[in-house]
Amino acid sequence: MNQKIIAVVLALLSATALYYSTVEHKDAFQQWKQDFRMVFSQEEDAYRRIIFMKNLELIEKHNADHTQTYKMGLNQFSALTDAEFEATYLNPKSRTAARSEDTTVNAVIGDVDWVAQGKVSPVKNQGNCGSCWAFSAVAVLESWALFKSQTVNLSEQQLVDCSKSYGNDGCNGGFNYKGLAYVKDHGITSQSDYPYTAKTGSCRIQGGSFKIAGVTTVKTCANVQAAIQSHPLGVSADATNWSRYSSGIFNNCGRNLNHDILLVGYTSNYYTIKNSWGATWGEKGFIRLAPGNTCGVCDDPSPYVN
């Protein structure tokens, strides 16, 4: 066959493949908008489509690499740039905690899984607000209540609005253990009495009927892994690269702490973390991290209720 004809045929095949790939990705964007109820103006829609397609390309490339220990997937963050995700959903509060060099991986007698034992409240969603610290603090409290055979739904919004004198700054960041310090001094009210708005507001109700006597914090991997044997505890992590996580054991992170969450399980192979980005993210709202000081989980004070 004439070489020119062969070249033309190959070019047409390449163009056809690119066309169908583009159409498929455009269809994926439309399906994603439908699945996550996303609505944009015409101008923003074009911009978000470009970002979505770039993220989709990263996801597909990552998942094709069989050496990876975790999978990526589409979620509510799939049309955000990394900078937008970090600025909106992570905790920008600066941290001065000294880094732990402890990378201990303690042997365990059986797996620790507080979710399976019914000691973890349902996954919540912090929305477009850097209030992960408040959700982490409330998750600690709700788990503590379950150990006392009490099912409660407590107010993150009250911590967002009312604990500023403790060093927290609402949607602009804070610390789970400082949120718990507020509760120790004032108590906390219910979600129904003080609903979540995902905005920093003025304090409407000070304290509440749910009380705790004290809060303990631990640091270093050895102490964190020992504490989780008895109860869930709040931890901090570098979640900069978590936006595309879907499943598996995550290990692609630094130690720039910017997110507070709840440690709910531990084996010699991974930690199990309850997040606050809704149940459609990750493994039904959870992420598994490689053991040791992955993402800096051993660096910051990790609180639990006495």
Automatic annotation (TrEMBL):
Database matches in SUPFAM superfamilies: Cysteine proteinases (SSF54001)
All copies of domain Peptidase C1A papain C-terminal, residue ranges: 109-305
Stretches assigned to the Cathepsin propeptide inhibitor domain: 29-85
Protein purpose: May be involved in extracellular digestion.
Alphabetical list of PANTHER family matching this protein: CYSTEINE PROTEASE FAMILY C1-RELATED (PTHR12411)
Keyword terms of this UniProt record: Disulfide bond, Hydrolase, Protease, Thiol protease
Similarity remark: Belongs to the peptidase C1 family.
PROSITE patterns per the UniProt record, alphabetical: THIOL_PROTEASE_CYS
Enzyme class label: hydrolase
Enzyme Commission designation: 3.4.22.15
UniProt-listed GO biological process terms: proteolysis
Full protein name: cathepsin L
Spans traversing the lipid bilayer: none
Xref: Pfam families: Inhibitor_I29, Peptidase_C1
The reaction(s) this protein catalyses: Specificity close to that of papain. As compared to cathepsin B, cathepsin L exhibits higher activity toward protein substrates, but has little activity on Z-Arg-Arg-NHMec, and no peptidyl-dipeptidase activity
GO MF, any single term: cysteine-type endopeptidase activity
